[in-house]
Amino acid sequence: MKRARNCCGPYHRGEAQAPTPEATLRARFAAFNKGEPDYILNTTHPDYHVHQYNVPTPGGAQDRLREDVAAGCNRFAYTGLKIVKTEPGVNEYEGYVAFEYLSRKRSAPGAPITEAEVKDANAWSRTAERGRFLKTSTGLWQYVDAQTATFDASRLSGIQEPAAAQ
């Protein structure tokens, strides 16, 4: 497994841009786990605000998005990212990534997940998404919107327990 310092670190620090929607998604996932909301905010398209927060103008809910991203970083742990499929969009500036991951609420904001919590399969939820990304004129891929489904992992047959929170 690649470590964020070698893989996503340059993206998180702004030294490079992820070259594909998949690489952007992987870097966003790592940023949620590492508690780096700035990268997530920078790679969220302004149109996301219109869809997520029902505001009339793109970028119109930046403060609310910042609060939600910080809460997502601090209150939840994520693991088991699996890329299911990548697809091109209608042109070279659009792409789709279908993916799945496991998440669970932390015992306290920012608290590490304990070994017992890792093994508690009933506490993990599986989320499946098909995310849409748009490429800006500067080459930055940004997450715009997604189709999402969340499942209680304990109710799905054949689900493996998470190996460890990443």
UniProtKB/TrEMBL annotation:
A Pfam family matched in the record: YchJ_M-like
Segments crossing the lipid bilayer: none
UniProt xrefs under Gene3D superfamilies: 3.10.450.50
Ranges for domain YchJ-like middle NTF2-like: 20-146
Protein name: YchJ-like middle NTF2-like domain-containing protein
InterPro entries referenced in this protein's UniProt entry, alphabetically: NTF2-like_dom_sf, YchJ-like_M
Alphabetical list of SUPFAM superfamilies matching this protein: NTF2-like
Annotated source species: Chlamydomonas incerta
